Amino acid sequence: MTAPALQAFRTGDTPLPDIVILTHKLTRAYDMGGEVVRALQGVSLQIRKNEYVAVMGPSGSGKSTLMNLIGCLDTPTAGEYWLNTQKVSDLDDDALARIRNKEIGFVFQTFNLLPRATALHNVELPLIYAGHGARERRARAVHALERVGLADRMEHRPNELSGGQRQRVAIARALVNEPSILLADEPTGNLDSTTSGEIMQVFAELHRQGQTIVMVTHEHDIAAHAARVVTLRDGLIATDQRQAA
Amino acid sequence: MPVFEALRLALQTIRAQKLKSGFSLLGVFIGVASLIAAWSIVNGVNRYMTEKFAQTLFGVNTFQLRRRPMFTPNVPDSVWRAWWRRPRIKFSDAEAVSAALTMPVVTAWQSSENVSVFYGGKEARDIELTTASERYFDIKNLRLALGRPFTAQENRSGVPVAVLGDAVAKRLFVDRTPLERSVRIGGIAYRVIGVVEKQGSILGFPLDRFVVVPALSPAQNLVNPPGVLDAFLVKAQSEIEMREAMEVAEGVMRSRRHLRPNQDNNFVLDTSEGVQRFWAGISRILVVVLPNIVVVSLVIGGIVIMNIMLMSVAERTREIGLRKALGARRRDVLRQFLAESAAIATVGAAFGIVAGIGLTLLINAASPLPATVSPLSVVLGVVMGAGVGVVAGVYPASRAARLDPIAALRQE
Ligand SMILES: Nc1ncnc2c1ncn2[C@@H]1O[C@H](COP(=O)(O)OP(=O)(O)OP(=O)(O)O)[C@@H](O)[C@H]1O
Ligand SMILES: [Mg+2]
Q: Against a cut of 0.90, is the pTM above it?
């Protein structure tokens, strides 16, 4: 099946309300001292609310670059990026930080937990920057840990947790601000296949609860959990297919 | 991120990295400790000088007619020689001034010389023998622990009676009473009639090694040539009357010495201000040296903190990247690291304050310096400590705040 038939987007338009992510000819080039590396060469992509999208493609095809742009960690060289009908491609640093904090949940391949902090404190981190008080932070962090099935490991530090548990803490941290999108760049890249399966189950449950998910992966059986697979090649979308979950 | 969170995080980091933090707060610690200790010494001596020494020992509203000033910091040789060429103060000068003073005053004659005092086989060496008139005790505020001072009658008749300083009494008589016993001064027997209360010491100079005898008693020959005295002491009832009395005394002395209007006084009218000027000279040296120590150690402390913070930023690049990815703004990161370096410095300052106060107490107990902690120095210590922390933290913190989150997260 081909990509969902979305209306063609032109510069100056505002995306439809249920479009969470819209990119229009998104371009990212790195100037490497004279030589320009074109990591993304004009990616136009629309993702609706509650979609579950896997991004695939060979190494160096621009998957991480795209994720960083969608996650507002990076700004495009050219093109437009709309998040929830707000144009974010030309926001300043502080505004982007605010969007990362409120609208985006990031899950990294290497977990990126603070080693000296407990699971609970790690999950609370985004709430500190959101300016919530200690009591509310704790309540919401506990709830997020419950959602990933780690209610009994809250006071553990990362080195007292297994790889799968660490990634679940990271997922709880990504969820705790109730973001519009959950972004995961190779979330199972550091995990064995059994643990990967468990993480995919967590993702599936979150998707069932209404979470919009975009996930980068190299593995077809991981991508198989998603309802839509976008393939990048040389910084461009090569294929964009819906599939039965 | 609220300031409170930043502080909590800072203290947590300090606790987690005790050794490193301990090292980095050393400079501020030394700076603040030396600030407080040195300030305490100056402060304490200052108070001692103004309250105890100048007021009590010199005497309130008192001036002394002398050949040259009593306390003379760094005078050139030429001035010194000029002083020695001046005529001495005579008994007749004292009497003339005394007669000219119309306001109510208390006056006394005073001359001093270092001698040995003997009792039985014992010798008290290096004792200040003072030949004085009877009101000397009142002017100098010397209260007696035992016995009585000598009377005007005894003074006029030159009766050989002596009032001992506490140290002399202890040295010669240990636990026995010195009263009615005879000590020998310059080969003459003096009957002890009183012992002065213990005066303690000032800046290490003992104040109890003296003997006071009547000005006209035989020992006057040990002290000065006949008819000559070191000082004529005049105590007025108020500052204003003291000034008036000084003018009268100056007029009398100038006319007695036939000084023309263009000639300078060849005598001085010394007041406790003279003592204070002398002390101000010493304390100025301390006041110049002290800030240098403090500034140098605070600057070193600041540099150490800055380096430690730069190391800390480098080590925690990934953490900073993560925090930014999770929504920390530049100012949040900036605040976190500024709070951390300010907290390190403030903890250093706090330890420095404790050490400085401890040092002050130690100085008080183990040395003659009467050190007193000044609350202002404590406040200044805290402010300067935290200030150094903030200043030293600005550069590392702004480097942290400017980090690119993607690059920071990619770092191993
Ligand atoms: N900071 C950078 N500076 C220069 N070039 C970069 C930078 N980041 C990425 N690139 C280049 O951009 C291209 C896309 O990189 P990207 O990390 O997006 O690939 P990827 O699809 O995620 O690959 P992988 O599957 O290996 O993670 C690559 O050629 C890479 O070398
Ligand atoms: Mg990648």
A: no
